[in-house]
Amino acid sequence: xxxxxxxxxxxxxxxxxxxxxxxxxxxxxxxxxxxxxxxxxxxxxxxxxxxxxxxxxxxxxxxxxxxxxxxxxxxxxxxxxxxxxxxxxxxxxxxxxxxxxxxxxxxxxxxxxxxxxxxxxxxxxxxxxxxxxxxxxxxxxxxxxxxxxxxxxxxxxxxxxxxxxxxxxxxxxxxxxxxxxxxxxxxxxxxxxxxxxxxxxxxxxxxxxxxxxxxxxxxxxxxxxxxxxxxxxxxxxxxxxxxxxxxxxxxxxxxxxxxxxxxxxxxxxxxxxxxxxxxxxxxxxxxxxxxxxxxxxxxxxxxxxxxxxxxxxxxxxxxxxxxxxxxxxxxxxxxxxxxxxxxxxxxxxxxxxxxxxxxxxxxxxxxxxxxxxxxxxxxxxxxxxxxxxxxxxxxxx
Length: 397
Ligand SMILES: *Cc1c(COP(=O)(O)O)cnc(C)c1O
Description:
- InterPro entries: DegT/StrS_aminotransferase (IPR000653), PyrdxlP-dep_Trfase (IPR015424), PyrdxlP-dep_Trfase_major (IPR015421), PyrdxlP-dep_Trfase_small (IPR015422).
- This protein has 14 helices and 14 strands.
- The chain is an alpha/beta fold and 397 residues long.
- The site of pyridoxal-5'-phosphate (PLP) has 13 residues, from helix 3.
């Protein structure tokens, strides 16, 4: 990660096709496009790669999460359970639909703790949003049991975990609906883009219509299409899809590089007895997009990230002190700072975050360091990096 490190002739060729015929729009203009349907072709590739019956491309990963929730009928007043450790997009997507984000603890997988989810279920709960952070996954079997018991939709945000698997299934295809991002820093990139995958025909048709103004996409005369329900515009362009079409074919190449680099760094860090690693649930295979490890306590984690900075070890984060990924620093969410009025129900729910205790999440995120695994490193760079990391951690302990 990220895929932009490896742009090559394939990406250029796909883009050139689109520029040559001039059709930047994914729907219609059949006569002009010389048979090039980049978005449609990418959807077919995604279906194959992600072993899913349907794939709907959208304009971003955040749009994918909103579209997935809307397609499953989640809306005003519905509660969606989500983890304390994720990206801000999770609650943005929920709030956009007028639904209520309910934040619960993560466990040593760095994903949703099924017991915490079970404890948070109320009569208003409609969906559980599991986020497969940093290339690995939550315990999906346990979460599936909770969802089945309470008849909840399981939405899987696999934006950071494309290429990982759980019990032989691609991540994103385990839940009822899976979401992906192809933004500029993801393993597979289009510049901006995203996708929703599902085996459920109704959810797919909902996603297809909803992401394009509610158009039904029946026939090939665009002006004659009807609107079975309200929608918005979350379309991807042919230019973006063209880049993604080249990139998706290189997924296994990228995962192999990530795995190789990850293995070298992990082996080096394993020589330090105080360093431990996140739990990968039984049957899980990471995408190796990140290496996550734990220090013994908050203080040693803070010292380690400082030592990384002074030793030139870049692309590592201590999310506990970061406002992008962890509840502790989400002041704008806790104080419900919105440009437009939010419902009293939502404001009340967000206010509970000011007094809620997420001790279990603090216990893991406070001690966790997360390092991006790049695709462009030479073997020499990986080994030198490993040596710098080990020296910095030892100095911080
Ligand atoms: C990147 C990301 C998103 C949002 O994707 P965009 O394409 O940037 O909107 C959502 N969830 C997670 C976990 C992400 O990492």
